[in-house]
Amino acid sequence: MATNPPKIKTATSANERLQKVRNTFEKKYGESPLFYACAPGRVNLIGEHIDYCGYSVLPMAIEQNILAAVSVNNSGRIQLANTNPQYKDFTVSCSEDIAIDRDNPKWHYYFLCGVKGIQEKFGIAPLAGMSCVVDGTIPPSSGLSSSSALVCCAGLVTMEANQKSLSKLALAEICAKCERYIGTEGGGMDQSISFLAERGTAKLIEFQPLRATDVKLPDGAVFVISNCCVEMNKAASSHFNIRVVECRIATKMLAQVKGLDSSRLLKLAQVQTELKASLEDMLALVDEVLHPELYSREEICKALGITPEQFSTELLSANTQHVTHFKLHQRAKHVYGEAARVLQFKNVCDSESDKSIRLLGDLMNQSHASCRDLYECSCPELDQLVDICLKSGAVGSRLTGAGWGGCAVSMVPSEKVEFFIQAVREAYYLTDPRRAAMEKQSLFVSKPGGGAVIFLEE
């Protein structure tokens, strides 16, 4: 695997989408782009809401992506435009400190996260002037990582425009950190697969240190993505960060009971490492130590020996200060159970058993049940869609991405794909006019795609 994102010479006239973006760029700015940058979205096959707890995940890049056409100039400004008219133009001065409004998560702030991450990495002042046109084929707020792909694309653009060089690993780590400028406390899966993906294979992504291992998916299995058409913006709600906080508190509670130094532990994986325990041991410990009933702030403060002020400043994030009660048992149980399912999923893929498709389907179904019942990150429409997918011939189906809307991913035997797509279309999309209008970009087969790339004119 090459260490840096590839630079590919291409003729834009031979690529319909590049030509379309180039035409928009020339009309907008009166000049031609210098280069193009592209970063894919992803579908997470299994391993939901555990990357920020320190555990491995198993995604693949999808063919849908964010593409940016870019020129570099001495204007002292970064000009951003989007081919989608619902996303308004934005301009920022290169000499100003880049401000990101996390209370108003508009599309250009995600782009500026990537710009700011590269600027801070290299201490660039001022940044090169840029004109950019962005085009996206990832359905927004669908759980397919459109926002992280935009951050990654912006990081790649800024690196190239300012004549810097970074490895894929370094870019992934920078983009994972800088997306937090907009308030999302993610774990790095989305950015890692966007840079480290390779066509034709899924990846086991491990953290600390970050590394990606090929996972060969079974022959005869096809992955189909279906969007429930309920949008959820992670940065615009506190659902996501509440789960991060609950896992952080559960970490402290488990560490405290086992006599560990809870002040330096923030992730559930760290407790397992410190205890040198198996995931099965950790699941038993959760049942033993954490009660399923809601925890109040007072109960947590008493157990950890901290003040209410410390609780607010050390454990809560900016958009979770209002939360008064927390589910710790359920969240920790999901995380340790899901971490075990990821390892089982990879082992089944590696075994190339003739029962692989059935075994993987079972793991996907268990994952969705855990996301729905323990982590409570599904929604009625997603549950309905998963149920329809299973009745339509999928051997496994689960929500993918943050949840609370967005997409399901289903594993379907290749000979049943045509029937499956038609059945889901009729049972879910054609029953509702709004869904029917969104169907073309909402129901599609996905193959493992490649990672981020820079295109240069031939």
UniProtKB/TrEMBL annotation:
- Per UniProt, residues of the Galactokinase N-terminal domain are 24-71
Which residue intervals define the domain GHMP kinase C-terminal in the entry?
Answer: 355-429
Which InterPro entries does the entry link to?
Galactokinase, Galactokinase_CS, GalKase_N, GHMP_kinase_C_dom, GHMP_kinase_C_sf, GHMP_kinase_N_dom, GHMP_knse_ATP-bd_CS, Mevalonate/galactokinase
Q: Which family does it belong to?
A: Belongs to the GHMP kinase family. GalK subfamily.
* Organism encoding this protein: Mastacembelus armatus (zig-zag eel)
The UniProt entry, under Pfam families, shows:
GalKase_gal_bdg (PF10509), GHMP_kinases_C (PF08544), GHMP_kinases_N (PF00288)
Question: GHMP kinase N-terminal domain: which residues?
Answer: 111-196
Instruction: Report the PROSITE patterns cross-referenced here.
Output: GALACTOKINASE (PS00106), GHMP_KINASES_ATP (PS00627)
- Gene3D superfamilies given for it? 1.20.1440.340, 3.30.230.10, 3.30.70.3170
Which catalysed reactions does the entry list for this protein? N-acetyl-alpha-D-galactosamine + ATP = N-acetyl-alpha-D-galactosamine 1-phosphate + ADP + H(+)
A GO molecular function for this record?
ATP binding
Q: What is this protein called?
A: N-acetylgalactosamine kinase
A Gene Ontology biological process term: galactose metabolic process
One GO cellular component term of this record is: cytosol
